[in-house]
């Protein structure tokens, strides 16, 4: 008679290390690398802001009209993707599909609102150092959102084809942790570019 330990090992996905698939660990490596990229970009903002300026830096006070609701939308997408992953672990297919679809919808809304934010921005990529930093940082983040959306689309298609189950959901977890990373980065970007100017007393 086989022990419960033997059965649990059989349920681990192929190419797994411990209780996580190798792809999960690879994604952590990607996140560590990309975190360094955004760390350098945000450090550049604070470094430039600390330098002497002939005028006010940043040259325009950021508007929260679109950015704040958009931040809430992205945070809600982290909740839906977490619910999706939980449903995948428990084998609740309908809830998993609902979670993926809701996350995709919220992610797409975030992209659309961010494009309106860019359009309403007084600065441009080439107008000033601030403009270059802002559009480079938010542009890189938008690129990561696009990659995350493609990952979620792939997960949705695979779910519809019946590739996942309670003991086979590594791809869902990998996509989820990447999406949480995207949300965490945006919180740092939002704090740096939208809140710091207010906290510093700029009027």
Compose a concise summary of this entry:
The protein contains 6 helices and 2 strands, in the order αββααααα. With 203 residues, it is mostly helical.
Share of β-strand residues: under 5%
Low-confidence stretches: 1-18
What's the pLDDT, averaged over the residues? 85
Helix percent reads over 70%
Derived from helix and strand composition plus strand pairing, the structural class reads mainly alpha
Based on CA inertia axes, which overall geometry fits? elongated
The H/E string reads: HEEHHHHH
Q: State the end-to-end CA separation.
A: 74 Å
**Main beta-sheet strand count, sense and barrel state:** 2 strands, antiparallel
Per DSSP E runs of 2 or more residues, the count of β-strands stands at 2
Helices, by number, come to: 6
For the largest beta sheet, what order do the strands appear in spatially? 1-2
